[in-house]
Amino acid sequence: MPVQKLETTATTENMMTSPSTSTTTPSRHAFERRLEEVKISKTDLNALVMDYLISEGYPSAAQKFASEANIQPTSAVDSIQERVAIREAIYRGDIQSAIERINELNPMLLEKDETLHFALLRLQLVELIRSCGTTSPDDPTPAINFATTELAPRAPTNPQFLEDLERTMTLLIFERKDLPPQIATLLEPKLRKDVAQRVNEALLKEQGERTKAKLFNLVHLRAWSEQKAREAKKDLPEHMGFGLDLMQNGHGKNNHDGMQSNGEAEAMVA
To answer: What's residue 242's pLDDT?
Structure first.
């Protein structure tokens, strides 16, 4: 018998004697079937997306989406771009430029919000300390002078200001490689991101806008609802995609550590 025929016969016998593989699709949970029955308004979805793009600082995407969805942006795209420019200045460590842009956009904001102003000045001090050993090798004089003239007079007015200033000045005491972990975090990108988010929210509030995108509120509400339902022993699927993980991680984290941004690559972190 030819080899090819033998192989064909053996294959056929194996298929006949092997147990058949089940192709039955697992039944879906009743909760998932009910979700599929819910009809969501396309208008509401479009409004939700547009609100996110505007609040989080995606001017080009907001314009394109408005055109494709045939809707009108709820805010002037120019105002979004101004917030994006401020964010990018903070992300690259150019805090003086960010402060100047803030004052141009809203001259009274930093005067009214002393906590935000101090946060910006403190970040500016961090950037000056960061530059020690690069622009002026091992010369802390610019940082010390800035701390003395800009932050020291403000520090006694608020215990938190004083604590933040003391922690920041500790950066000058240790070598970078020997910094205590709680101090080393001041040089991480997260501080820039946190300050940028606070600035964004403050500007939105001054403009009469929502300080956070509606989408974030919905995510938190979704997570809270799932948690309460599980605590009440409701019949839910074992895994539901997203929910508590997002709430625990915090959308402010966003799992982004880089500071590069071209105005569209990364939203104003919340």
So the answer is: 56
pLDDT tens-digit series, residues 207-259 = 877 667 777 777 878 788 878 888 888 877 777 765 434 334 444 444 333 34
- Nearby residues of 246 by Cβ (< 8 Å), 6 or more positions away: 219, 223
Q: Which of 266, 216, 210, 263 is nearest to 59 (CA)?
A: 263
Query: Is the predicted pLDDT of residue 18 greater than 70, yes or no?
Result: no
User: How many angstroms separate the most distant Cα atoms in the chain?
Assistant: 100
53, 99, 205, 260 from 56: Cα distances, Å? 5, 19, 13, 16
Q: Which token pair is 165?
A: 């200033």
* H helical segments located in 147-188: 159-169, 181-184
Contact 267, 56 (CB under 8 A): yes
Distance CA 247, CA 249 (A): 6
What confidence tens digit (pLDDT) does each residue in 59-102 have?
778 778 888 888 776 666 667 888 889 999 999 999 999 999 99
Residues 225, 247: contact at Cβ < 8 Å?
A: no
Whole-number CA gyration radius for the chain: 27
Identity of residue 182: Q
